[in-house]
Design goal:
21% helix; globular; 134 residues; 8 strands; 2,3-Dihydroxybiphenyl 1,2-Dioxygenase, domain 1; four-stranded mixed beta sheet; Signal recognition particle alu RNA binding heterodimer, srp9/1; 2 domains; alpha/beta
């Protein structure tokens, strides 16, 4: 198997897509007014309206109810992204901090309250894991 995408169900897909576009610099591709994707080289973040849930059945997902999943984006310079986004009034839960496993991470929340981790591998081991030069 190969993980290809993560889908977030939301009551406001336009706001959520705009948030992730601002964070990542990736323009969403809208397939319908209820479904957009932000494609990265390693996978896709899909954003879908609650109206799409009817296609799956009743009570399949509850928007803005996540308390355990963190959406993560690797970035070349988390400190620069922190400064860029803070200047745009994004509120962070955690400023850039180097984690014991070798990633420098900053946490913020999307408009639905989902945690978003921006990180840069900084240790030799973490950089190697992601195929980056030490």
């Amino acid at each position: 198997m190969n993980l290809t995408s993560l889908r977030i169900i939301t009551a406001d897909p336009k706001a959520l897509a705009a948030f992730y576009a601002a964070v990542t610099g990736i323009t969403p591709t809208w397939f319908t007014e209820d479904f957009a994707e932000l494609a990265t080289p390693s996978g896709t973040l899909a954003i879908a309206s609650t109206r799409t849930l009817a296609l799956f059945g009743e009570n399949i997902a509850r928007p803005a109810a996540n308390a355990s999943v963190i959406v993560e984006f690797i970035t070349a310079d988390v400190d620069a992204d922190f400064v860029r986004l803070a200047a745009q009034n994004f509120v962070f839960e955690q400023s850039p901090t180097t984690m014991p496993w070798g990633n420098r991470s900053a946490l913020l929340r999307d408009p639905d309250g989902n945690l978003v981790n921006l990180f840069t591998p900084v240790s030799a081991q973490a950089r190697q894991k992601f195929g980056l030069p030490a």
